Q: What sequence folds into this?
């Protein structure tokens, strides 16, 4: 089925005053990102990535991403860049394509043409506010441009596209070590996985 480019994905700023999306540190516009503060540029990059997904998907339900920047695990040579995933999952809702199968909220909303958890964002996203600083993947900060010219920096838009995909449904809730399903039930993504170790 071809997408009709009809999905709206909105970023919900979950940062406190002076941090993350609200960081007032002056920044020169870069790579098509017109923000003049670090916080504005971060938010612009998030919405840019959300708009790419929105132009690819079809849904009448707005997907809300609760997002913030926090110091995440890192060393001088490695770092957690960020993560995103479904805030809610459910199964056996009216019209669910597969019975006894977990669906992430954004996908369940699309399939039912309704907001299954009203008033709550569908996806949670956290990204590393310390990236590129001493002791946190030194010298490799997020590139906040929108033109895919990151050079030796970490392209934030690329990472966001990947992580938002998890929240939209490219995610399972199965134990990676034991293979046990969450509450004994597979996720919709599990139906498309094969364990080639056994």
A:
């Amino acid at each position: 089925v071809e997408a009709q480019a009809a999905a709206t994905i909105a970023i919900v700023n979950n940062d406190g005053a002076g941090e993350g999306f609200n960081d007032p540190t002056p920044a020169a516009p870069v790579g098509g990102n017109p923000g003049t503060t670090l916080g504005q540029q971060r938010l612009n990059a998030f919405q840019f990535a959300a708009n790419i997904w929105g132009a690819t998907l079809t849904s009448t339900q707005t997907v809300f991403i609760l997002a913030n920047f926090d110091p995440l695990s890192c060393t001088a040579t490695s770092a957690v860049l960020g993560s995103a995933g479904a805030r809610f999952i459910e199964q056996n809702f009216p019209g669910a394509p597969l019975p006894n199968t977990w669906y992430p909220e954004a996908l369940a909303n699309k399939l039912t043409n309704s907001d299954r958890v009203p008033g709550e964002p569908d996806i949670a996203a956290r990204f590393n506010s310390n990236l590129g600083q001493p002791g946190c993947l030194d010298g490799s900060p997020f590139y906040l441009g929108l033109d895919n010219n990151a050079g030796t920096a970490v392209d934030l838009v690329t990472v966001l596209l990947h992580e938002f995909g998890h929240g939209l449904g490219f995610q399972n809730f199965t134990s990676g070590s034991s293979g046990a399903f969450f509450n004994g039930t597979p996720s919709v993504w599990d139906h498309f996985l094969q364990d080639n170790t056994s």
